[in-house]
């Protein structure tokens, strides 16, 4: 027996509806047989109330992509006769098919999607008025939310910069001098609800050291019995380093004595997009699990060839069992 669809908001808690209303007897008992949203719901055995399971939070943003883009959840509920033993396989009066349509609520804060964080930019002292300095982009995980941006200048930044917006991108332009901070606020609006996320763009007049996309460092795992010069990084976890000047960048892996590692080597790929270089990590010789250490705590140093400006970040290598 298929019951009419029920719409449920992702922020709903407690009792949602009852399947009892659709039936003609008070002598029935109900058990949840299956749900395509695992662990999300419970059914009261006597009342037939369908509730969000205790401690569970429905999540439209997590569920729908995992459910092939569908908001439809299928519950099957077995109806038993209360005068018969509940655990008897004979005791099935009918099986109810209940679809729950999960609806999106504007419950997620907007996010800035720029890959390098913190948001750093440079501008030259003699930059022409209204030359572009930086763009910060925002989006919102909620389906129908509209993101709008606004800005606040810290100190006298407004004397030197102007911010323009196109859709959810803030374009910052100089009009003159020094380290200045501009806060960009992304506000998502869906109906009456809205949330705000703030991001600070720090603009420095002059040069800036190179920036790694993972400021807190990289962790990679690799296996023993590798080939010589085997690449550890993959297309998914390549390292990225940005030059602000711009300049070419070379990388050195340093061991615990701050000497170039004899085992690991980091290489920048030849070309860059917008002064962002991809980099890969290689193992230079065959590593043996029984003979060699399993954890290597290293430092990755990036140096610009034109400016000799350097930055370092942590590099942890693990050989799992
Ligand atoms: Ca949502
Ligand atoms: Ca939102």
From TrEMBL:
Query: Keywords for this entry?
Result: Calcium, Cell adhesion, Membrane, Repeat, Transmembrane, Transmembrane helix
Q: Keyword Repeat: yes or no?
A: yes
Q: Locate the Cadherin domain: which residues?
A: 20-112
Compartment(s):
Membrane
**PANTHER family registered for this protein in UniProt:** DESMOGLEIN FAMILY MEMBER (PTHR24025), NEURAL-CADHERIN (PTHR24025:SF23)
Record protein name field: CADN-like protein
Give the organism, scientific name.
Mya arenaria (Soft-shell clam)
Specify the taxonomic lineage. Answer: Eukaryota, Metazoa, Spiralia, Lophotrochozoa, Mollusca
């Amino acid at each position: 027996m298929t019951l009419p669809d029920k719409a449920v908001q992702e922020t709903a808690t407690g009792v949602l509806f009852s399947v009892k209303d659709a039936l003609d007897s008070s002598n029935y008992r109900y058990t949840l047989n299956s749900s395509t949203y695992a662990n999300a719901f419970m059914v009261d055995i006597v009342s037939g109330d369908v509730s969000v399971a205790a401690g569970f939070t429905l999540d439209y943003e997590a569920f729908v992509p995992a459910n092939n883009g569908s908001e439809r959840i299928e519950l099957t509920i077995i109806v038993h006769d209360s005068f018969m033993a509940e655990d008897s396989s004979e005791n099935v009066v009918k099986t109810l098919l209940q679809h729950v349509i999960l609806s999106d609520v504007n419950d997620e804060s907007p996010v800035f999607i720029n890959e390098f964080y913190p948001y750093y930019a440079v501008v030259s002292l003699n930059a022409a008025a209204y030359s572009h300095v930086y763009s910060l982009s925002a989006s919102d995980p909620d389906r129908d939310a509209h993101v709008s941006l606004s800005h606040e200048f810290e100190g006298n930044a407004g004397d030197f910069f102007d911010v323009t917006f196109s859709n959810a991108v803030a374009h910052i332009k100089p009009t003159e001098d020094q380290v200045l901070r501009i806060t960009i606020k992304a506000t998502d609006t869906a109906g009456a609800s809205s949330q705000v996320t703030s991001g600070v763009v720090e603009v420095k007049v002059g040069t800036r050291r190179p920036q790694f996309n993972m400021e807190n460092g990289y962790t990679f795992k690799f296996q023993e019995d590798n080939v010589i010069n085997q690449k550890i990084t993959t297309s998914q976890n390549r390292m990225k380093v940005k030059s602000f000047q711009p300049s070419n960048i070379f990388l050195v892996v340093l061991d615990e004595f701050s000497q170039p590692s004899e085992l690991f080597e980091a290489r920048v790929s030849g070309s860059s997009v917008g002064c962002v270089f991809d980099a890969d990590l290689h193992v230079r010789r065959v590593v043996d699990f029984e003979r060699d250490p399993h954890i290597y705590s290293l430092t990755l140093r990036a140096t610009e060839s034109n400016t000799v400006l350097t930055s370092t970040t942590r590099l942890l290598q693990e050989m799992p069992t």
